[in-house]
Write a sequence for this structure.
């Protein structure tokens, strides 16, 4: 079945002229009747139309002799990059009673759109544009999140209200961050997680190595945290502490992805000997920070701040600062007391009073040896 042009088709069609370049390249995904590709061909010579439906491909090849027609599941048979990509996806939730590729957008109606957005960056030129049409049936907040998760930016440029739904047209482009990362050779940039002040993406470099990118969270009220973290990391990296910065911009930095366990998970999964070795490593790094007069902060509960894989790496230095009286070791001693029950499962007995006394003495003289001796004796 070929999707006949309707209100959604015409809404997208009327926006195409604004963004087509005479010497540009256009890709129409899920072309259906070919209405968007045909409109784009009025204003530029190079237009490619793709669709997963063999019936559509046969129809379009017969109808258009000046448009490249390719059978493709989204980008599966697409090569190259384009200045404009258009997509009017199927957006209705899956209905087992009626199977129609032209209407079925997935179980909830937005899965196909998500898959499309996950792959579009690789086929969009640096300053390319994407026109995406979707319905309120697709759930607008979901589409917004899919766009941002792929390090893209968007604005709504058109919409119409129908009897039972609203139709939206989004203009989507690569964010400045994504453009910068691609100039550094990164691809497959995708959202990983976010905190109160930063947002984390992962990508792959030209050698296929997985890279982590930490960027300023746009909604954060904490100004200058990323810049501060870059400054701190550049200093402590010389002492082998923290993720090693590979490159950075004004509001982001990149480092090799750390594949490791969080500290509590590591304790539960490893032998007593390895756990003690890990604790000594952490103590050594924290002592170096104390010597540098840098307080990391949050070491009294660093459940998300220590990753243990091939080596022990502390992350998240956005709140770190210089101070004459750093508290890294004393805060971590508090954390050890919190983990008494976890340590007991490994046969490690923590003497709360002893740790409190050692921390108090350390804070007065910065002698780390008694604490090291205590950990070795666990």
């Amino acid at each position: 079945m070929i999707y006949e042009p309707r209100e959604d088709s015409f809404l997208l069609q009327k926006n195409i002229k604004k963004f087509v370049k005479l010497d540009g390249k256009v890709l129409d995904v899920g072309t259906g009747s070919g209405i968007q590709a045909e409109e784009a061909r009025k204003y530029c010579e190079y237009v490619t139309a793709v669709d997963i439906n063999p019936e559509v491909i046969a129809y379009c090849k017969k109808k258009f002799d000046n448009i490249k027609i390719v059978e493709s599941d989204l980008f599966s048979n697409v090569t190259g990059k384009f200045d404009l990509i258009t997509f009017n996806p199927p957006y209705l939730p899956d209905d087992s009673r009626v199977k129609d590729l032209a209407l079925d957008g997935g179980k909830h109606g937005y899965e196909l759109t998500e898959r499309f957005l996950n792959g579009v960056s690789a086929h969009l030129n640096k300053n390319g544009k994407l026109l995406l049409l979707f319905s309120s049936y697709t759930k607008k907040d979901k589409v917004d999140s899919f766009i941002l998760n792929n390090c893209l930016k968007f604005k709504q440029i058109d919409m119409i209200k129908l009897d039972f739904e609203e139709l939206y047209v989004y203009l989507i482009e690569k964010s400045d961050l994504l453009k910068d990362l691609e100039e550094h050779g990164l691809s497959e940039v995708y959202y990983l997680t976010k905190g109160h002040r930063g947002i984390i993406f992962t990508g792959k470099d030209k050698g296929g190595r997985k890279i982590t990118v930490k960027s300023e969270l746009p909604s954060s009220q904490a100004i200058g945290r990323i810049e501060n973290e870059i400054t701190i990391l550049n200093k402590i990296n010389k002492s082998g502490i923290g993720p090693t910065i590979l490159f950075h911009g004004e509001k982001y930095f990149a480092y090799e992805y750390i594949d490791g366990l969080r500290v509590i998970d590591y304790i539960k999964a490893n032998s007593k000997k390895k756990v003690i070795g890990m604790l000594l490593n952490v103590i050594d790094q924290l002592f170096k920070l104390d010597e540098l007069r840098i307080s990391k902060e949050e070491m009294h509960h660093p459940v998300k701040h220590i990753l243990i894989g091939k080596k022990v790496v502390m992350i998240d230095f956005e709140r770190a600062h210089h101070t004459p009286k750093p508290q890294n070791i004393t805060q971590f001693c508090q954390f050890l007391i919190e983990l008494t029950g976890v340590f007991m499962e490994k046969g490690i007995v923590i003497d709360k009073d002893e740790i409190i006394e050692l921390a108090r003495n350390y804070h007065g003289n910065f002698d780390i040896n008694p604490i090291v001796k205590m950990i070795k004796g666990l």
Notes: The chain has a mean pLDDT of 92. The longest strand covers residues 124-135. The two ends are 72 Å apart (CA to CA).
